[in-house]
């Protein structure tokens, strides 16, 4: 399955416009991207039918344009080794908490998260059929994911692990997707608010001394929110320890800003132990213009306090023309991003735009 088919169901043709100046008003003055070596990335689902000669030419063009790493959604030794031969980093990109494998569903339906109504995503997935979310409170789930990461990183042609869907289900969707599901998420609706399984309830009770089910509005309890932030953080930081034991890098695709990530998907990524982060700053999904990319980057860079580099994820179909794409890259770099990561077809047109942008 190609990444983010869910959010790709609503490609935008909105009237995005460039604004000036490129540097966001909220940009931290201490950040100077020019002091860092800019590195760009691409997200790719490798095609086993690709010819070696074609890949060699493509990956050489990537490197020459400033792309230094690839996040591969599947294992393909051919693609990884050719990428590495062209001086690109080859990382395996994996789905983390959203896991709908038939074997896993059949063997362990109890591992799956439950919403505030008590419905399990194992048999009643929210929004779309493949949205089946594991419960991060369960040690069995953490062990399962950690074992998969170890299996991936044992391969000598894999340079690192890239985590995706490393969060809870979207309790609130980006506003431009509401119409797809005929919903208005101006508040946290119970069918999209996870996880309220018995394990989560009991662990929270042991931590705080009261039963969450006795609250009239549990979704508003701040300790309950923090409990879930910390659950995902614990999963990530364990995987980080594993990656670093293999002396390999770990990165993650996350929601566009720290505030949006915590509010929409219980994701506190500024407190993760990573080697880099790729916020998906898909401006069209939030009905924002291209300049918002700079605002989002500035917010993230400021919150990270230099812990690790931020690479701005941009969604190529969101842009109306080449000028907007160039502007989006510039907004990202001039507000502190260490590079960008492309989702969409990276062809000669995109590479030429990337070469034209002066960092």
List the helices and strands and how they pair.
Elements: H1 5-8, E1 40-44, H2 52-65, E2 67-72, H3 77-85, E3 89-95, H4 102-107, H5 139-153, E4 160-164, H6 178-181, H7 198-208, H8 222-245, E5 249-254, H9 258-265, E6 276-279, H10 292-304, E7 311-315, H11 322-334, E8 339-343, H12 348-356
Parallel strand pairs: 1-2, 1-8, 2-3, 3-4, 4-5, 5-6, 7-8
How would you concisely characterize the structure shown here?
With 359 residues, the chain is of the alpha/beta class. The protein is 36% helix and 12% strand.
Taking all Cα atoms into account, the compactness measure Rg is 20 Å
At the fourth level of CATH, the homologous superfamily is Glycosidases
So what's the CATH class? Alpha Beta
Separate helix tally: 12
**Quaternary structure state of the chains depicted:** single chain
- Give the N-to-C terminal Cα separation: 34 Å
The portion of residues forming beta strands comes to 5-15%
Written as H for each helix and E for each strand, in order along the chain, the element string is HEHEHEHHEHHHEHEHEHEH
Number of domains: 1
SS-based class: alpha/beta
CATH topology-level name: TIM Barrel
Q: Can you give the helix content as a percent range?
A: 25-40%
Strand order in space, largest sheet: 6-5-4-3-2-1-8-7
Q: Give the overall silhouette.
A: globular
**Uncertain regions: pLDDT < 50 for 5+ in a row?**
5-35
Based on DSSP secondary structure assignment, what is the total number of beta strands? 8
**Which CATH-level-2 architecture?**
Alpha-Beta Barrel
The main β sheet shows up as: 8 strands, parallel
């Amino acid at each position: 399955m190609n990444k983010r088919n869910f959010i790709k169901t609503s490609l935008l043709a909105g009237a995005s416009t460039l604004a000036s100046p490129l540097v966001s008003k909220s940009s931290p003055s201490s950040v100077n991207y020019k002091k860092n070596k800019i590195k760009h990335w691409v997200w790719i689902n490798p095609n086993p039918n690709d010819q070696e000669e074609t890949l060699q030419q493509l990956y050489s063009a990537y490197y020459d344009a400033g792309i230094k790493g690839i996040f591969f959604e599947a294992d393909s030794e051919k693609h990884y080794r050719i990428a590495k031969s062209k001086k690109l980093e080859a990382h395996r990109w994996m789905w983390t908490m959203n896991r709908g494998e038939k074997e896993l569903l059949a063997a362990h339906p109890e591992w799956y998260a439950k919403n505030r109504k008590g419905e399990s995503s194992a048999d009643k997935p929210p929004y779309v059929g493949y949205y089946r979310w594991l419960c991060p409170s369960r040690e069995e789930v953490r062990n399962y994911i950690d074992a998969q990461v170890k299996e991936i990183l044992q391969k000598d042609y894999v340079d690192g692990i890239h985590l995706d869907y490393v969060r809870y289900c979207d309790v609130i969707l980006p506003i431009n997707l509401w119409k797809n599901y005929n919903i208005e998420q101006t508040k946290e609706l119970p069918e999209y608010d996870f996880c309220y399984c018995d394990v989560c309830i009991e662990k929270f009770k042991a931590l705080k001394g009261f039963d969450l089910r006795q609250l009239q509005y549990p979704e508003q309890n701040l300790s309950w929110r923090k409990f879930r932030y910390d659950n995902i953080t614990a999963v990530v930081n364990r995987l980080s320890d594993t990656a670093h034991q293999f002396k390999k890098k770990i990165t993650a695709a996350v929601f566009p800003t720290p505030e949006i990530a915590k509010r929409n998907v219980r994701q506190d990524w500024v407190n993760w132990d990573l080697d880099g982060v790729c916020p998906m700053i898909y401006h069209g999904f939030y009905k924002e213009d291209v300049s918002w990319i700079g605002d989002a980057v500035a917010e993230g860079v400021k919150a990270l306090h230099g812990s690790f580099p931020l690479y701005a994820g941009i969604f190529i179909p969101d842009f109306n023309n080449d000028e907007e794409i160039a502007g989006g890259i510039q907004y990202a770099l001039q507000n502190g991003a260490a590079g960008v990561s492309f989702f969409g077809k990276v062809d000669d047109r995109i590479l030429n735009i990337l070469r034209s942008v002066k960092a």
